[in-house]
Amino acid sequence: MYTSFKPYVLVLAMLGHGACASTECDPNLADSIRDTQRHMGPLRADKPGQARVFSADGSEYSAGAARWLQAELLRAEKNCREGKFADAGEHVAAVRAAIIPHAQR
């Protein structure tokens, strides 16, 4: 039986389950990552070629910006699991800096 594997399903699953919540990760950093993920919600394009996507709070992002935000959070989780807390914190700060102006609108 042939099944196609969609890599974005794995990304969404990791974002949804807070993959950084392992024991190696600093608890404060893990909480920060989860809070940021909660704010973004299921930030993804519903159909191919969709130019705009919306977060759980109604903030609007370009599809490219949404992918960048998700990639930054994945990098933060990876760095957190590897014990690179400073690098992980920088990635989370970059995402927060990008989403805060949207949340204040």
- Uncertain parts: 1-23
How many domains make up the 3D coordinates? 1
* Approximate shape: elongated
The run of helices and strands is HHEEHH
Query: Which secondary-structure class do the elements indicate?
Result: mainly alpha
Task: Report on the biggest sheet.
Answer: 2 strands, antiparallel
Defining traits:
single chain; 105 residues; mainly alpha; two-stranded antiparallel ribbon; 4 helices; 6% strand
Please characterize this protein's 3D structure.
The protein has helices spanning about 5-15, 25-40, 65-80, 85-105, and strands spanning about 50-55, 60. By secondary structure, the protein is mainly alpha-helical. The chain has one domain. The protein has a two-stranded antiparallel sheet with strand order 1-2. The chain is elongated, with a radius of gyration of 14 Å. It starts with 6 loop residues before the first helix and ends with a helix. Mean pLDDT is about 75; it is low at about 1-25.
Summarize the structure.
This protein has 105 residues and is mainly α.
Secondary-structure map with pairings?
Layout: H1 7-17, H2 27-40, E1 52-54, E2 60-62, H3 63-81, H4 85-103
Antiparallel strand pairs: 1-2
